[in-house]
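Subject: sequence -> structure tokens, single chain

Hey, anyone have a minute? Need the predicted structure for the following. Not urgent.
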Amino acid sequence: MRVRILCEDRLSERFLRRLCELNGIEVLDTEVAPKGGGSASQWVAVQYPRMVKQRRSQNFQTNLGVLVHIDGDQVGVQARKATLDGRLQAMNLAPRGAAETVATLVPTWCTETWLLHLTGIAQPPETCQLKRGPDRATYQAALNQLEALGAAGHRQAAEAWSSLNPAPPSLLDGRTEAARVGIH
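Reply:
Had a minute. Here:
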């Protein structure tokens, strides 16, 4: 399988690339939301129809996919997926098909939530924003540990992708989505 990645930030890109690498998936290219350009999730949502349309124009290439990352933030997985579906509809494109090789991963609140769970550093809840909440000092300490791991942390997280149990709900959904492009 070969994929194009569309994501919000470099942290997510590095994690997705590591997941692809461990699953023998070639990354053709990556589009990352520009820093300082406003809402990264909105940027991904705006780019999404173009990426899907491009993928569909190459349907003869059965081993080609799109791997999309967009944070769930305060709205969560289903609302983000509905936003992406709405973007397709607004461009007069058909909804994403069940067998289509377009995977939408929606970590909630953010990628760091998944990485902290997958590395075993912490188990932050998906129900509140920890960066600004009452436990932000604890959360920041966990993020500092994650940052200190660097590339090894991404590798560790990718290796735990399919085995972490229990896993947060958005990660469970992400596993199902990632299987569309051969990530198990």
